[in-house]
Specification:
Helices cover about 45% and strands about 0% of the residues. By secondary structure, it is an all-alpha fold.
Length: about 40
């Protein structure tokens, strides 16, 4: 079995997940905002 590794950055991976699933609500826990989440909210 081969394990594939993505060349995406964590921000790119998060943006792709948000684009694919388009959640109605998000729970954000942390002190920093993620650029991908900010772009999704706008």
């Amino acid at each position: 079995m081969t394990v594939g590794y993505s060349t995406r950055t964590p921000q790119q991976a998060l943006a792709a997940l948000l684009d694919r699933y388009a959640p109605e609500r998000l729970l954000l826990i942390g002190a920093q905002a993620f650029p991908a989440l900010q772009a999704f909210q706008d």
